[in-house]
Amino acid sequence: MLTGAELLTKVKERGDVSKSDLVRSAGYVSTKKDGTERLNFTAFYEVLLEAKGVSFGDGGDGGGSGGKGRPGRSLRWAAWRRVCRYSATTALTCAWSMASASAMAKWHRCRAPSSPIASDRGRGGAERSATSGAIAGSARRAARGASAAEVVELQVSRSKPWARSLGFCTSSARSVARCSTCWRSGLGSLAGFYRHSAKVEAQQFHRLMANPQPEPDDCPSILIVAALAEELDHPGVLHTGVGKLNAAYALTRELQRRRPKLVVNYGTAGGLNPSLAGLVEIRRVLQVDMEAEPLAPRGQTPFSPGPFQLDSGTDGVVCGSGDRFVTATDPWLLQHGVEVVDMELFAIASVCQREGIPWRSFKYITDHADRNSGTSWQAHVRGGQDLFLKRVGELVMAPK
Question: Where are the alpha helices (H) located in 144-243, listed in sequence order?
Fold first, then answer.
């Protein structure tokens, strides 16, 4: 099962898949007794939250996922342990109070004064009857919620000879009433605590899923962008899809989540200059398929302030971007000094220019933009990965 930074990376890479597939790919899967698959969503969510620095367990109770107990259920175990402790304490108090009341009632019956005179026996019997009835009445009134003061006053007024004993019994009955009240209020408070904790956990998880990327301070300084995994299959690469629209949308969405210091684009390209081969760096890019004459010259978007050519600030070649796969010579491209052609770079560079983020681009030439371009591209689409990764390593190690 993935944890920590590895889990965050997996969430980032597979952010567009369903939650079930995400949990399964992270390894949080177990097998039921009937052999079917069980997805451990709770364990996944808790480890994901801990990777983001959010913890709901209290160290004293072993509530975190790193403590003892079943993983992924620290909140439930901590809450229900409190229930059990409170319940046990309350039950023991109630039992002691009721046993005390019963014992005192028996003691009064046994210790009542006796006399050979019938009138004395009658008086003693009446007093004992009054005492026993008072004790039973105390318990009943306490159970009905009568105040302790009312119970004490009633017992003392009915059986003055036994006032001291009745005071003790009445305090026992009062304890029973208090236990009942505490039990109800305790359960209510605990239920409120559990609902509040679950609400906080849900809010934290939804905020996390809305932004599964690392926080800005933890973001890598370089964001690598490629159109297809076939061109660059490497962890951490943003794959946008083919074409300017897909590239602009995917990069804009990613920049809303994090702000890298540099965007580096890699992709394949068709070469118009026969002397070019292998991996080349782009110094300027322009749009080749914006044809809106007479509203604006080719390569310029009508009613847009531009710029219509974007520079990377480095040495290299000129690239022309358009939503078409070039398979024939275009005189306009040669007139404007275009040496390689691709289908995404102008959109990527335009987004970076508007967001104020520097960009660089490297293209691996797979074909010569002729009628054999399709076959040649498929044969060489993976050929430049090692060259590019070596170049990126040089960028990372270069002095700032």
Answer: 148-158, 163-210
Give the whole-angstrom CA distance, residue 231 versus residue 325.
Answer: 16
Q: At what angle do helices 148-158 and 118-143 cross, to 10 degrees?
A: 170
* Burial (0-12, 13-18, 19+ Cβ within 10 Å), 116: exposed
Neighbours of 185 (CB within 10 A): 10
> Bridge-partner residues for 30, per DSSP?
38
**What is the rounded CA–CA span in Å between residue 380 and residue 279?**
12
The per-residue DSSP string of 267-320 comes to EEEEESSTT--SEEEEEEEEESS---TTTS-TTS-TT----SEEE-SSS-EEEE
Q: What angle do CA 262, 365, 321 make, to 5 degrees?
A: 60
* Beta-bridge partner residues of 226: 239
E strand or H helix at 122: helix 118-143
**Tokens read off for 61:** 């109770």
Amino acid at 291: E
- pLDDT value for 202: 60
Which residue, 91, 88, 130, is CA-closest to 109? 130
C-alpha 18, offset from chain centre:
15
Cβ(74)–Cβ(67) below 8 Å: yes
Statement: residue 243 has pLDDT above 90: yes
Provide the 10 A C-beta neighbour count for residue 399. Answer: 3
pLDDT: is 141 or 316 the higher one? 316
The dihedral over CA atoms of 343, 344, 349, 351, expressed in degrees to the nearest 10, equals: 130
The count of C-alpha atoms lying within 13 angstroms of the C-alpha of 120, restricted to the half-sphere facing its C-beta, is 6
Distance separating alpha carbons of residues 82 and 58, to the nearest angstrom: 12
Choose among 350, 360, 357: nearest CA to 248: 350
Cα–Cα distance measured from residue 55 to residue 200, given in angstroms and rounded to the nearest whole number = 11
Per DSSP bridges, beta strands 279-287 and 317-321 are parallel
Contact 28, 40 (CB under 8 A): yes
Where do we find the tokens 């118009």?
272
Looking at the whole model, is its pTM more than 0.70? no
